[in-house]
Amino acid sequence: MAPSAVTQPTHRSGALLDFLARRMRLRTEAVLAPLGLRPRHLVALTVLRVRGGSTQQALATTLAMDGTNIVGLLNELEADKLIERRRSPEDRRRHLVELTEAGVEQLAKAECALAEVDEEMLGALDASQRETLYNLLQLAATGTGVSCAQAILE
Amino acid sequence: MAPSAVTQPTHRSGALLDFLARRMRLRTEAVLAPLGLRPRHLVALTVLRVRGGSTQQALATTLAMDGTNIVGLLNELEADKLIERRRSPEDRRRHLVELTEAGVEQLAKAECALAEVDEEMLGALDASQRETLYNLLQLAATGTGVSCAQAILE
DNA sequence: TAGATGGCTTGTGGAACACAAACCATTTAT
DNA sequence: ATAAATGGTTTGTGTTCCACAAGCCATCTA
Predict the structure, then answer these.
(1) Which domain CATH number covers B89?
(2) Which of B35, B87, B118, B154 has the CA that lies 20 to 30 A from B19?
(3) Nucleotide lying nearest to B69, CA to C1' measure
């Protein structure tokens, strides 16, 4: 069964991550569609739950995405009243983005609906393995360029 | 460290996976470009290393991608002599796709070059955690719809 | 007062797709 | 044997997600 006895210098997770994320995103799209959300929205909402009150520039860095596209993304979310742009008191040019109550609820509803996707895609993992995976992903996500850039800003 | 004491019903890895995969793909693009590869090629080659001799239809299912796009993707890889399409002896309509020797080498070279990306993106994880992550991803990838569809075919 | 900055709008373009149609070679069913 | 189905190919068309550039306003800073 071993395709190559001699394995790679170190296992690279990149391709695997890409592969899985694609499959999961396809299923996620289908599940999220009835809620009026798309994967990009889910990611944005998820980030905002943790980093509420972020500047749009900070979001751009976090999401590794152009500022003008952040505008569009937030416009969509704001139109659905899932987020709110508040003016920063210190610098009134800035917008501080935050989830609305409806946003929190919608995110929770989405995550609930996504249980079936987890079931499908992570079926081979038991509960504790899924938790481990989640924690490792979380650690990687918060412990890199993201928090690095954030650290500079704070 | 827990951002919210009361966590979600269960942690959903979907958004996190999407988020990380995006960041990683951006970096990967840059690293792979000088090798004449793009992320999609890396994924295809990686799949083919394990599932060599797959039919193009099987690849389409595995990669969750339209058959006509598989053709295009394989055309690119074949033009670079990284893969080979052999006629199936049993059914001469079928193509059995396999990595060439050059393909194996190029894949290894790519993975080697991607060490720096891992370093950047998974910096917060130590070696054993990275290995765990890799194993969990591998398990999830091979243990779902993929192998399920494959099992039916065999 | 001038320049820099955060954000918004609009427009252009590219990459990765899905989907459809028409085609060949081959296999299978009648 | 002839018809139908199948695996793959080619050539479109359209969509979505993005990057990037230019020009605009409001506001802050020098």
Answers:
(1) 1.10.10.10
(2) B35
(3) C17
- In degrees, rounded to 5, the angle at the alpha carbon of residue B32 between the alpha carbons of residues A139 and B42 is 80
Protein CA at A66 to nucleotide C1' at D21, angstroms: 12
A17-71: per-residue pLDDT in tens?
A: 999 999 999 999 999 999 999 999 999 999 999 999 999 999 999 999 999 999 9
What's the N-to-C CA distance of chain A in angstroms? 51
In this structure, the answer to whether residues A59 and A131 fall within a common structural domain is: no
List pLDDT tens digits, range B14-63: 999 999 999 999 999 999 999 999 999 999 999 999 999 999 999 999 99
Say whether B14 and A134 touch across the interface (CB within 8 A).
no
CA–CA gap between residue B4 and residue B49 (Å, rounded): 42
Q: How many domains does chain B have?
A: 2
Q: Using a CB–CB cutoff of 8 Å, tell me whether B16 touches chain A.
A: yes
Conformation bin of residue A60: beta by default, left when phi > 0, alpha when psi is -120 to 50:
alpha
User: Which residues touch A130 (CB under 8 Å, ≥6 apart)?
Assistant: A118, A122, B10, B11, B13
